[in-house]
Amino acid sequence: MATFLYKLGRLAFRRRHFVALIWVALLTLAGVGAASAPPAGSTSFSIPGTEAQKAFDLLEQRYPGMSADGATARVVFKAPDGGKMTDKANKATVRETVKELRSGSEVASVADPYAGHAVSKDGSVAYASVKYKVSGMELEDSAKDALKDAAQDARDAGLTVEIGGDALTATPETGSSEVIGIAIAAVVLVITFGSLLAAGFPLLTAIIGVGIGVSTISALASALDLGSTTSILASMIGLAVGIDYALFIVSRYRAELAEGREREDAAGRAVGTAGSAVVFAGLTVVIALVGLSVVNIPMLTKMGVAAAGTVAVAVLIALTLIPALLGYAGRRIKPAGEKSRLLGGGRTPKKPGRPNMGTRWASFVVRRPVAVLLLGVIGLGAAAIPAASLELGLPDDGSQPVSTTQRRAYDLLSEGFGPGFNGPLMVVVDAKDSDHPKTAFTKVGDEIKGLKDVVTVTPATPNKTGDTATITVIPDSKPSSATTEDLVHAIRDKGADITSATDATVLVTGSTAMNIDVSQKLNDALLPYLALVVGLAFLLLIVVFRSILVPLKAALGFLLSVTAALGAVVAVFQWGWLSGLMNVEETGPVMSMMPIFMVGVVFGLAMDYEVFLVTRMREAFVHGERPQQAVVTGFKHGARVVTAAAVIMMAVFSGFIGSSEAMVKMIGFGLAVAVLFDAFVVRMAIVPAVLSLLGKRAWWLPKWLDRVLPNVDVEGDGLRTDADRRDPDGEKELVRA
Q1: Which H, E and C letters describe 228-247, residue by residue?
Q2: Mean pLDDT, range 539-545, rounded to an integer
Q3: Residue 526: exposure state from Cβ atoms within 10 A (0-12, 13-18, ≥19)
Q4: Which DSSP string corresponds to 453-477?
Q5: Is the pLDDT confidence value at 97 over 90?
Q6: Does 371 score more than 90 pLDDT?
Q7: Which of 164, 265, 348, 730 is the most buried (most CB within 10 A)?
Q8: What backbone torsions phi and psi does residue 74 show, to the nearest 5 degrees?
Q9: What mean pLDDT do residues 626-640 have?
Q10: In sequence order, what E strands does 411-531 have?
Q11: CB 532 within 8 A of CB 588
Q12: DSSP string covering 281-337
């Protein structure tokens, strides 16, 4: 591995024009593809195997033309103080608005509030339900504008009007904080390298990689049914790892220059050693992201695969474009320890020969391993305590900022009709195999009326053939509450009894039931996913480190950091701690896919730091140093770069906290905190403490396993002879390899 990458790095350094041209061409091709591709259509959200999805599919078959997946809007009207929606003038305004709404070409139906009994008991609030022929993502801007204009006309007539539902679904925005994150990354790179040029390379290559990845996602969005969140998450992860991977290779290049190597040879060795770590670190991230497919939620699978593709591009760019750019830079990239004149280069160090911070910290940990280990474990354990109170759910309009019309519509409906009105349950009765369908429909309605926490049960609405009916159930509690979840399970339990008595199948669906089923499916998949991802990465790390205990320690450390990060997410987004600072206007259940997504992404990123830091230690150990001294040497060369990489990754992830999308905001915060815990507590404190306590046993590997495992030579031991000779035929050898 190291020898092949060494030759690849030298080839890219020599043929820099060709390499740069290839990447510019790929970026251009992806950009043209994104610009010419049709706009993304409907982002379907299906959960195969769940009861809610089965009911949804049944509605598609039995109610043709009802546009079961079409966008919906609730135009909510509130009368002025002292007035009622049943007043003559207000009635006329509402009916004029309904007439205006029905004129839209994409509108399937509009329900008149007065004909459908959609007026609150006190007469202060009414609503009109609008059903569209297409989904919210497919709605034309003209249809959305017509909806807003109709609402504005009613406002001008003196009513308070707000719009709920998914018809006004907008592409999430990340805000200016993302730019701030990149700016912080730039500052950290300049401080780390002491050179504006060297600092610019990781940023440039990361932006190129993300540009290729996101443009490709945009080009394929329509064909592969990719949502807007997919590209945001891909850019988030791709930008962070892209900067880090390039940072490690440039840093190793400068270290090789400091040892007196020629620039081409230094580039080859940087790619051969640090590049090997990049390859395996990237593989762990890809495994974790692609592994999300085991959950069997298509949207999550697409998000994971798209982000994994962006990570793969980041790895390839780090291995090829970085050495090419180093070739262009020439002598303007200084050896490690030297700064450019603009940033103070040429000055005499104040304390020559003084060990760097990484060396001093590692020496302290080696002297006090038990105290550092206990402090780190207890601290992360305390941070993880809130995770025991984790409640999962999916966001609805009630989690939107109060400044949005969707949230204000949600609050008006809760005020006029009760909190459960925002999360109605749709009960589908399949009586195709029943001898008395009408009796079955009536029995289902009567049974549901007898359950607690039920406010309203509408009469059954059969289809044209009379073999299927829908019943709407309004709970007494809000959609995301545990009480509503208990009601869904109670209806399903009653359905089992009804099936045995009438041969009719009872299914519960609707957005609220769908959210409950998603949460349950994700909970059930978490442990199998964790076992798969950690298991595969464990095997990969055994190959990299040729050790059993080091990968085991890496996995256990990851579990500590991810649990502590989940605890922080619960404290902020569920309990409300520091919610004002994070601009979290509404606390509530944590996003259902947050734990499993964090497990996947954080595990991949955690292994990044493990590989980058510990390979330096193994390299020193393999070259003859004592285990404790190898720990110090690893920190001497790697701590500064790993610290910079972690700060950069935290800055990039924190930039997404400003997103208008609740899921992106939560993931950005969770990943930033996870990197903080994993890089600075686990990898910088617990790992050296454990390795110091284990000594030589840390690198133990059974002899039979040592013979079976391939030697990937991540530490670059095979380059000790190759590096000393010039390789004029390196290109031919690379082709043969």
Answers
A1: HHHHHHHHHHHHHHHHHHHH
A2: 83
A3: middle
A4: TEEEEPPPEE-TTSSEEEEEEEESS
A5: yes
A6: yes
A7: 164
A8: -115, 110
A9: 86
A10: 425-430, 454-457, 461-462, 468-475, 505-509
A11: no
A12: HHHHHHHHHHGGGGG--HHHHHHHHHHHHHHHHHHHHHHHHHHHHHHHHGGGSPPTT
Distance between CA atoms of 144 and 152, rounded to whole angstroms? 12
160 Cα distance to chain centroid: 37
What amino acid is encoded at 128 in this protein? Answer: A
Which tokens belong to 128? 């009109």
DSSP 689-730: HHHHHHGGGGG---HHHHHHS----TT-TTHHHHTTS--TTH
- Across all residues in the chain, what is the average pLDDT? 83
Here the tokens at position 256 are 């090789």
pLDDT digits (tens, 9 = 90+) for 11-67: 999 999 999 999 999 999 988 988 887 765 545 566 788 888 888 888 888 887 665
> Quick one: pLDDT at residue 734?
40
**Taking the CB of residue 411, how many other CB atoms lie within 10 A of it?**
18
361, 643 contact by CB (below 8 A): no
**Residue 355: partners with Cβ closer than 8 Å, 6 or more residues away:** 363, 636
Closest CA to 691 of 624, 608, 622, 634: 634
Contacts of 159 (CB under 8 A, 6+ apart): 77, 78, 79, 80, 90, 93, 94
Tokens of 664: 């992106």
Contact 9, 268 (CB under 8 A): yes
User: Region 466-487: what's the mean pLDDT?
Assistant: 88
Percentage of the chain beyond pLDDT 70 is 89
pLDDT at 689: 94
Could you tell me which of 467, 443, 468, 439 has the C-alpha nearest to residue 457? 443
How much is the average pLDDT of 599-618?
79
Whole-model pTM: value is 0.77
Instruction: Report phi then psi at 452, rounded to 5.
Output: -75, 160
Task: Pick the closest to residue 100 from 153, 64, 60 (CA basis).
Answer: 153
CA distance 572 to 582: 8
Residue with tokens 């049960």: 457
DSSP for residue 655: G
CA-CA distance, 202 to 712, in Å (whole number)? Answer: 26
pLDDT per residue over 384-396, tens digit each? 999 998 887 776 7
